[in-house]
Amino acid sequence: MEKTLSWQKLARAQGPFYVATGLWPLLHRKSFEAVTGPKKDWWLVQTVGVLVTAIGASLLAAARKERSDPETVILATGSALGLAGIDAVHVSRRTIRPVYLADMVVELFLAYAWKQAHRTTQ
């Protein structure tokens, strides 16, 4: 029998991951750019950071509930798939560094785990 993560454990994992990765460029631009490469449109990095942080906070709030809402599953899965897709496209176009492929792998794992967790709660 395949063991799946509960939706609450997923939200408790993805939430802090998103809060941390969202806040990182907002709090320390120099280290963020040292890893991910220089950014031309810093306002766009800040916008993505704020949105990813908000998604993470939402997932942490949802984890405190006893049942998952469809909105939480959609937010978590959609965010993970969207970020993975952006990583894949822009690494292949060489607009962003290959280090983003590591994030893509994490995002794809999260999307898969949400699918599995949602399947077991139906």
Question: Overview of this structure, please?
Answer:
The chain is mainly alpha-helical and 122 residues long. It has one domain (7-117). Helix content is 77%, strand content 0%. The protein has 5 helices and no strands. Helix 3 (42-62) runs antiparallel to helix 4 and helix 4 (70-92) packs antiparallel against helix 5 (100-120).
Structural descriptors:
122 residues; mainly alpha; 5 helices
Layout of helices and strands:
Elements: H1 7-27, H2 29-36, H3 42-62, H4 70-92, H5 100-120
Q: How many domain modules?
A: 1
Estimate the mean pLDDT confidence: 94
- Work out the strand percent: under 5%
Structural class: mainly alpha
Please tell me what the overall shape is. globular
| Tally of DSSP helical segments | 5
Distance from first to last alpha carbon: 17 Å
Q: Helical content, roughly?
A: over 70%
- Main beta sheet: strand number and arrangement? none
Q: Give the topology string: H per helix, E per strand.
A: HHHHH
Q: Could you list the spans in which at least 5 consecutive residues all have pLDDT below 50? A: none
**Strands, total number:** 0
Report the radius of gyration as a whole number of Å.
Answer: 15 Å
